[in-house]
Automatic annotation (TrEMBL):
InterPro entries: Kinase-like_dom_sf, PQQ_b-propeller_rpt, PQQ_rpt_dom, Prot_kinase_dom, Quinoprotein_ADH-like_sf, WD40/YVTN_repeat-like_dom_sf
UniProt xrefs under SUPFAM superfamilies: Protein kinase-like (PK-like) (SSF56112), Quinoprotein alcohol dehydrogenase-like (SSF50998)
Domain (Protein kinase): residue spans on this chain: 15-258
Source organism of this protein record: Streptomyces malaysiensis
Domain of life: Bacteria
Protein name (Swiss-Prot/TrEMBL): Protein kinase domain-containing protein
GO molecular function: ATP binding; protein kinase activity
Pfam families reported for this sequence: PQQ_2
Species lineage: Bacteria, Bacillati, Actinomycetota, Actinomycetes, Kitasatosporales
Length: 706
């Protein structure tokens, strides 16, 4: 007689547990259940803590934290997270929109043996490509295992993010900690080291070894049974020395390199049948009434079904796993029922990827180059940081920029001093050249760089009379930094000469210079110059534009100039000067609006952030922070992640990360500063793929984004 299984909850939040995904006995890392969402009637996959650790308070906290962090995983094969248990739940859990799906052991059970080499190659290439993307965003999975790898009709979903971190803290040699699949645990983590990207590669090698052999070990005898074409690559993935393992991108390329037979684009028929039967066994149902109880209850789980019955549980029709095939629609359809309540659940702020003390007072916003390098300028030095690790690449204290540094498109930057400007390598910090013709003696002097596009930069110059006084001869210069050649020079009339802090707007065909409000000219007046020739195109006043500073304006798609005044956002058509739309705000918008895609975002003095459609001016959403600004004159700043998926709202108390789709809260954060900055939450000062930079005083933090 089969022993009675331990009682476990039959309801978790809005989910009723209706089946199990664990095949071939209890899982080593966590429990995975099929559950029905009472709000939508759809089936989902719930991951629960390992049974032996469910009562450990520390494990539960770490499990819940990693479940929240798993929301940050992006990409085609990222398992879409629907819900995460709230902090008050007795048992933590995470719900994935991954149904129908089979854990890899169930896939092999359905096949009665290992997978064909062609399927292993496709499975491995997709997993490796996904892991490479996560590593590029500063994320280490630390939970890859056969049981955590779900196979769906359109491809794999590596669940179990952070299980190794949840199951064991850093420490001395501990072997395989409870709650972690020992088979795929990298040897360095057994010795107490922190999870690393190389550890994910080891775990991937173990998963593919299992898929190709059906054996849950990586011993020499098992490796000898691998298909010959996979043997050498997986041996490198499973190297004891982490430094000898290939990068996941390399693994993906090598797995794709071998010409595949025509059948490579399909899962084995037995797996397709199992997925189809699973889908038929748990069809979508009409959602229960809203009054239905949602409390968690416990009951004895019926005796487990046979191994074969567990894996026969899928998706109707043809099931493909083709490389490059457009299989995204499958999991999107599974997540269509995601409710506003689920997406608006308050999240835990992600842990910083790194922290760097700048040492001196920052002199300008960090400049980010190609998502790889951050160039920071303080009162003491100019320093280049690796954007992914926070490690210093180089630092120089012999550059004396008298105005802002400017990035060029060829991996260099411009550092202007009082008599010349230098072109410096971002990679090494070495001088690439010095331009001395603008020394203020023999020629005009540069008093501000306006910006650069690729290797072309624009700056303002002025001439001095023999006694050192200004001659009033001001110009804007277009300069080729590679050929070290002046392309054009255009004299500037007095209202547009600037004071060293001019905010120029660079359009595809024009350079727009704002008036400084001198000589009776209104500050909303602009001079437009042709970018290629420097020819004056027009000067124009924009009516009703009453904001005090041109820094509060930006160019948006559709040839629009966005401006903000006391209680209004306005959009003007640049070519005609006509007002296109206006949006009233409750408070004063003193920060600069931000445009991304077809939306513009702004935060007012009441800590309310607005999302407005660029084309029509129609409000998309509006959200007020729970931590309002202290006074109506306090600046409220806004930033948008590189992908456009997250909007950052900054207040006196915290930084809030909002979903750009509907304004719902993703997480809140207040990073610690030093000294007088200790109670200040920080300010977003840059975004790159997968990363947001936050500065608090002299401390620079990198947080994962999206």
């Amino acid at each position: 007689m089969e022993p009675q299984r331990q009682a476990e909850p039959t309801r978790l939040g809005p989910y009723r547990i209706i089946g199990t995904l664990d095949a071939g006995g209890p899982a080593d890392d966590a429990r995975r259940r099929i559950a029905r969402d009472d709000r939508t009637g759809r089936a989902a996959v719930l991951m629960l803590p390992h049974g032996t650790l469910a009562d450990d308070p520390g494990y539960r906290v770490r499990f819940r934290s990693e479940a929240e962090n798993s929301r940050r995983l992006t990409g085609r094969w990222a398992p879409p997270v629907i819900d995460v248990a709230g902090p008050d739940a007795d048992l933590p859990w995470v719900a994935y929109a991954c149904f129908p799906a089979l854990p890899l052991p169930a896939v092999l059970a359905a096949c009665d043996g290992p997978l064909p080499e062609s399927t292993v190659r496709v499975l491995g290439a997709e997993l490796a490509h996904t892991i490479a993307n996560w590593h590029a965003s500063g994320l280490v999975h630390a939970g890859i295992s056969p049981q955590a790898t779900l196979v769906m009709a359109d491809g794999p979903r590596p669940t179990g993010y952070g299980l190794a971190r949840a199951a064991a803290l850093d420490g001395p040699d501990r072997g395989a900690p409870l709650g972690v699949d020992a088979f795929s645990l990298p040897p360095e983590q057994r010795a107490g080291e922190r999870p690393s990207p190389a550890g994910d590669v080891y775990a991937l090698g173990a998963v593919l070894c299992y898929a190709a052999t059906g054996r849950r070990d990586v011993a020499e005898g098992t490796r000898a049974t691998l298909p010959e074409a996979l043997r050498e690559l997986l041996a490198r993935c499973l190297a004891q020395d982490p430094g000898q393992r290939p990068r996941p991108g390399t693994v993906a390329r090598e797995l794709r390199a071998v010409p595949a037979p025509e059948a490579v684009g399909r899962l084995p028929d037995a797996v397709a049948t199992a997925l189809a039967r699973q889908a038929a066994a748990y069809p979508a149902q009409v959602p229960m009434a809203a009054s239905a109880p949602a409390e968690e209850t416990s009951a004895t789980v019926p005796p487990a079904r046979s191994r074969r019955a567990v894996v026969v549980g899928g998706l109707s029709g043809a099931v493909g796993l083709a490389l490059g095939a457009g299989g995204v629609a499958g999991w999107r359809a599974a997540g269509e029922g995601r409710s506003r309540e689920a997406s608006a659940r308050r999240g835990i702020a992600p842990a910083p990827l790194w922290r760097y003390d700048l040492g001196g007072e920052p002199q300008q916003t960090p400049l980010l180059w190609h998502g790889r390098t951050a160039l920071v300028r303080t009162s003491d030095a100019v320093t280049a940081l690796n954007l992914r690790t926070g490690k210093r690449i180089w630092s120089r204290d012999d550059l004396y920029p008298m105005s802002a540094l400017t990035l060029l498109g060829n991996g260099t930057f411009v550092s202007p001093d009082t008599s010349a400007f230098s072109v410096v390598s971002l990679a090494t910090g070495r001088m690439k050249g010095v331009e001395r013709r603008y020394d203020g003696v023999e020629g005009p002097a540069i008093y501000q760089f306006l910006g650069a596009v690729k290797d072309i930069c624009w700056f303002l110059t002025r001439k001095y009379a023999s006694g050192g006084t200004e001659s009033g001869d001001h110009a804007v210069v277009c300069y080729d930094a590679v050929r070290r050649k002046e392309i054009w020079r255009t004299p500037l009339p007095a209202p547009y000469q600037g004071d060293g802090t001019t905010t120029a707007l660079l359009l595809s065909t024009m350079v727009l210079l704002p008036s400084q409000g001198d000589d009776g000219e209104d500050a909303s007046s602009y001079l437009a110059l042709d970018r290629r020739s420097g020819r004056k195109l027009w000067t124009r006043k924009f009516p009703k534009m009453k904001d005090e500073s041109a820094k509060q304006r930006l160019v948006a798609p559709g040839d629009l100039l966005i401006s903000c005044d006391e209680h209004m956002l306005r959009a003007y058509h640049i070519a005609s000067g006509k007002e296109r739309w206006q949006v009233a705000t409750k408070g004063r918008v003193s920060g600069t609006p931000v445009a991304h895609g077809q939306a513009v975002y702004a935060t007012d003095s009441r800590a309310t952030t607005y999302a407005v459609d660029v084309g029509s001016g129609s409000p998309r959403w509006r959200r007020r922070s729970a931590a309002p600004l202290e006074s109506s004159w306090t600046r409220g700043d806004t930033a948008v992640s590189h992908s456009g998926a997250t909007v950052f709202q900054m207040t006196d108390a915290e930084i809030e990360a909002l979903d750009a789709t509907d304004g719902s809260l993703r997480w809140r954060s207040a990073l610690a500063g030093k000294g007088r900055q200790a109670a200040v939450p920080g300010q977003v000062v840059g975004v790159a793929p997968g990363i947001v930079l936050v500065r608090n005083g002299t401390i620079l933090y990198a947080l994962p984004a999206d």
